[in-house]
# Entry
Amino acid sequence: MTTANTAAATAATTACIGERINHGDTENTETIMTFTRARENETFSEYETFQIITCYKCGMPFGVPQHWKKKRHEDQGDFYCPNGHIQYYSKSTEQRLREEISALKRRVDLARDSEQYYRGRAEKEKRRAAAHAGVATKRKKKLDRVAAGVCPCCNRTFQNLAQHMKTKHPDHSP
# Structure
């Protein structure tokens, strides 16, 4: 058998039977195709569900396996029509809204965590300021008493506090 005869014999033994199921719009039109191939004493049947896609640019309809189309929807990967025009599926409105809700939840959580952090920090600063105020008040009282002539070491009153400090408490630093 010559090469031309073999090709003709193969073409003659391959049959494609298509049944078109229309669901209303071209995007959801399905064609179920049955391929029957016969080789010498062998028959092979395969069933595959194709979904018809129409190119947005040239309008050419072409079929792709259902599982492949589902994968393209999920990964938003590029594909081409038979005329070479690039195609892709963008995220669905539902998918975009879910992602937006998720992002907003993360922002709310971050804001809540930031609020708690800054509230805690403000409380800490309040306590610190109160402690410093207490120390300052204590020092001011001590200075007022010293100005009135009261010794800061022995709490006695003197006319000449400077002379008393020099003679009785020489190692005291103000």
